[in-house]
Structure formats: structure tokens, C-alpha cells
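Question (not urgent): is this output format expected?
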Amino acid sequence: MSISPKFLSGSQIRQTFLDFYAQRGHKILPSASLVPEDPTVLLTIAGMLQFKPIFLGQRTAESPRATTSQKCIRTNDIENVGRTARHHTFFEMLGNFSFGDYFKKQAIAWAWELSTEVFGLPASNLVVSVFREDDEAFAIWRDEIGIPGDRIQRMGEDDNFWQSGPTGPCGPCSEIYYDFHPERGDNIDLEDDSRFIEFYNLVFMQYNKDAEGNLTPLQNQNIDTGMGLERMAQILQKVPNNYETDLIFPIIQSAAEIAGIYYHNSDEKVKVSLKVIGDHIRAVVHMIADEIRASNVGRGYILRRLIRRVVRHGRLIGIQGEFTVRVAESAIALSEAAYPNVRLREAQIKAELAREEAQFLKTLERGEKLLEEIVDRTKQQTNQQISGQDAFTLYDTYGFPLELTQEIAEEQGISVDLDGFEAAMKEQQTRAKDARQTIDLTVQGSLDKLAETIQGTEFVGYAELSSLAEVEVILVDGKSVEEAAAGTEVQVVLNQTPFYAESGGQIGDKGYLNGSLQGENGEGLLVRVDDVKKESDFFVHFGFVERGTLRVGDSITAKIDNSGRRRIQANHTATHLLQSALRKIVDDSISQAGSLVSSERLRFDFNSPRAVTAEELQKIEDLVNSWIA
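Got this back:
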């Protein structure tokens, strides 16, 4: 059935695509999470990512053909969001995939059929590109599809050779472009965004790329395609950019209403801010729905940065106070039919947005005034550049993100000294490192030298509280010695030990090293052990010779303080109970960030999107005590 090129909603376009390929033997599969299983990428950037193990031959496909509508996040072009007609951080990629089934000829034929006969795009408005060395694809488009050779563009590796990341499956691709202005003639420049938009990319997945850039043929020839839902919506809905489609514009209208403005009557700067809000709100809603939480690292940092950009652009169009939750309601309503988890996690989405917005508004109030003074001062200088130290002060003292300083500086026609910022950052890190208490490097150096002649320590403490052992190394003041008399502080390495070494926040065991009956010292030797640390493969017992003389080669009995060990075990267990109670009462995303477990007490560090209330603390205490009882 042919659909005339009239208005189709974003939902209709999505379903039409999936139905087309389902009718041709493709299994419709759900979108993968924005948090990918692939550790080489931070966020899901393409529809093929969930199929990467199949392309590599590591997993068998459920079906030889599949089709999906995949949520994607890309931030490499974040500065272009709102400024061009097509750049986004969040977008949906409609894809059809073949796992060793069909290849170039069938993929090209179906893409053309879908574009021209189903979506009704006139052939005269379409131009295609191929990889410069892909004569096979060029011939299929020209000889079998019937596209004139002058409307098939050969392009280089940067444009028409696709890969999902620095390593992994890849291959040449062929793209279909829509020409908004065929009346301008045959002078085809696909870089001209005002005339051409790429809406469908066919990737012929043939190779695996390793870390050195070498290409190895995959076991099967595969197909991986991507049609940009937002771009096809722009074409079929006949609007000037992706933002004015029904996929995004209702979000923009929501923000405009809060600001008391009308989008179509606004100047270009205001429109850019509204587009940024519309794009970023979609992104953060789906990120939080996929259980990403704002933080200062990794994907959590990307989430935080996007939320902060929304807040600031809200300020630029005159919105005072908090507004992100209200705008998010529009994004949730638009997405819930295709992605029900956004409605299921509505409470978490709104809570995360409200917390981050309130926190950042305080940051803005503190930093904007100082930045305004810095900008005014900089404009009076000849180099027109904010110093790295000023940018670092804003970052370190006021929590003002470097990217935000750069954005505001750019708006004012000045730049930021990034090298100076990095130098200030490194200087601060060096100061912090010097201030931290570190492990005795002299001890480590001595052990490194001895590692060639002695074996590491065997740990037997899971099964035994005491054991016979042989003294392999004695260190005094970091230097290896053959013996140590009473009254000497020592570090002792044994061939085996029941002493637990400090690890994961749990302190090392305490106890004693006693002279064995078999040893020449009889029972006269006693070394008090105050701490144990693990250095490489060695357990280093830090202690004090209380009586007798300790010698290398002695046979001794290593015995831990059993009551101390039991208290440490109890406190270790309590940290797990505490984490469980925190996740049950405060937030199920809470994760451990550090801990201290000793015989006297425990400390549990954790990541939480908000402060714990006094009432919740009492509930946590009661719950943990009930479990212990």
C-alpha cells in the first residue's frame, strides 16, 4: 500500500516502519536501555549496539532478521543542538537488521521501496551516497534501482564508513538524502543542510576493527540500518526543522507557556533556547527512566550537564524559579505509548529533576555574579580571554561547570584559557595528593626488591584463626634485616597467615606472633600485630616485638585476636544491612562509595540523590535492628 506524502505523526511513522519490515520476516524487538551492555561506550548511541555480540559471532540471534525503534543519546554535537535543523542529544533510530541473511541488494531494494512507495517520497527528491570504494553498491543503485549516476555521490571514510565505537563491527555504508529544493538544479552538495537531509543510513557490516585499526572480515555479512525518526517526521510533516515536529514541539510549547512567550514570534536566540530545552528534556526523561542518576562522573555527569543546560536556557528566556518538572510532564506524555517505562518511573524522573534543578539554581546564583565581573574585566583586556585560574575558581569554589563558563563566554564574544584551567586543576590535584596519608613507600620498595627471591603470602584466614608459619622477611625502618630484638617496631612477611589484610574499607586483623615450640626461641618470642596490609602478593604484618628476638627463618604461630575478628565480621555484615535499608527506605539506586569496618565501629559512604531525613534515619535504624534481632 502506498502512503501519499501527507502529514504522518511520529507514532505513525514509527509503526509504519516496524510493520513494513515485520511483513518481510523481521522480528520486532524492543529498544535496549540507554545504559549499554557494551563497556566500550558510555551510552547507547545506535540501534545496532544491542546486536554487537551477534555481529561478532559471540551470541546467536533469536531471528535472522530484526527491526527496532531504538532510543539513542549522543552528545558529541551538543553545541549544535538548537542551532541547526537536525542535531539532537536524544533521538530515535528506526532500524532493520540482517544477521548473515540478506545483504546489500535486498537492503537497498527495501529501503527504496519503503521511502518511495510506502512513505511516498518522490524519487526526484532523493539522492544517495556510497563509500568511495564500494562499486557494488553504486552499481545496485544505478542499474537495479534506476537512480541516475549523477545523483549517486561517492564519499570518503569519514562520511560513509560506519562503526559503533573505537573498536568492533564496522563497514561501508550508503545513505539516502532528501532534497528539499530540487529546483536549484544538479549542483549537488550534500553538506548543504538548507537543501539536503540524510534520513536513512544502510550499513553493510562486513568487518571487525581492532584497537590498532586493523579490519578483519566478520563471520557473516550483516545489515545494520538506521532511519532517523525525527528527520523523517520533518520531511513528512513539512516543517522547517526537526524541533517543530509533533515529536518535540509540544515540549517546546510547554516551556514557552511557562516563560509567557510565543515560539513563532520569538527571535532566533529565544528559539534556540526553546529548542535546547525541548531536546534536552526528552533526553533526561529517558535517561532517568533507564535508571541513570545525576553525578559528577560518567553517564551521571552527562545527565547532570543536560539538566543544567535546560535550567540555564530557561533563565535565558525569562523563566524564574523551578520549571523542569512541568516541562517533563509533556515529554512523558509524548513518549509513554512507545516507551511505557517513562510513565512507570514518573515519580523518580520528577524527583531527580527537582533535586538537580534546585541545587543548580543555587550554583547559578553564587557563580553568575562573579562570572559577570570576570567577563567585564576580561573585555577590557587585549587578549579577550578568561584566565584559566578564574575559570578554575568558578569551578572549584562555586561549583560552576567549565562548559557553562565556556558557553557564557562565547555568548559574550570571548574565550576561556583551557590550558590554564587544566594547569590549575593539576596543581590542585597535586596538593590534594600530597596531603593524603599514603602507604609506606619505603616498605613497598623493599618488597619489590625481595619479590624476585621469595614467594607471596598464602592467606588461610577464612578457615583458620591461627596457623604455623615461617618468617620470610623482617623490615625495620623500611630496610630488610635478619633479626629484630625486643622493643623494635617491625614489618613482617610470613609464608602464610590467618591475618586478614586491610581491604575494601575493612581494617586488618590484630593479634600476635608467638615463638613455636619447634623453634629455638621456645615460647619466649612475642610480637604484637597491630595492623596488616597487602602489598602486591605479600601480607605485611605491622607490629612490635614485645619480648625475645625475631629472626628470618623462625617458625612461629600466627594467631589473630578472635574477639576482634568477630566484632569486625559483625560490623562488616552491618554495612550490608545498612545498604539494604537505605535502598528500601530512601532510594533503590543507592550504591556504596566507600566504607570503614573496624572492631569498634563502621562507616558506610554512599551515593544518594538527596539528603537523608531525620525521620528516615530512625526508620533505617529500626529496620536494621529488627533484622539483627
